[in-house]
Amino acid sequence: MRADDLTGIELDYWVAKAEDIDVRKLDWNFIGKIIERDRIVILPPWEAHDEVECIVYFPFWNCKIQKTEWKDEWIESDSSESALEAIKRCIVKTKYGEEINEIAVHQ
User: Fold this and answer.
1) What is the pLDDT of residues 9-43, one digit of tens each?
2) How would you classify the pairing of strands 46-49 and 74-80?
3) Into how many domains does the chain fold?
4) What is the pTM for the complete model shown?
5) From CA 88, how far away is CA 51, in angstroms rounded?
6) Contact at 8 Å (CB) between 42 and 32?
């Protein structure tokens, strides 16, 4: 299963598992601490205009977490409906990667 396809209760389950906490603690207070700890970059939906008046619109939230402190390598989550969803997907990707192998995780 792809981390970017997770939503709702299923996404909350994997975030709680990644952070080793009770799923009921996944509120903005807890997520805010992760944002600070991991220095997460959150990008809102945006619209851009170029020189010839073309409009580019990206309607989704995006989130980035730097893989290592000294390298320009990032883990990204895009196409999320909300900032919170984008952040949660990044947390899951940081721990389990793009694809989650449920069998390997449960062993």
Assistant:
1) 999 999 999 999 999 888 999 999 999 998 888 98
2) unpaired
3) 1
4) 0.79
5) 36
6) no
Question: What does the chain come to in residues?
Answer: 107
| Cα dihedral across residues 11, 16, 22, 24: positive or negative | negative
Residue tagged 């000294």 (tokens): 70
Q: 56 is in which domain, residue-wise?
A: 3-106
Exposure string of 11-20, with b = 16+ CB inside 10 Å and e = fewer, is beebbbbbbe
Residue 5 in tokens? 């396809």
CA 29 to chain centre: 16
Tokens of 21: 């906490």
pLDDT for 49-75, tens place per residue? 666 666 667 788 888 887 766 666 778
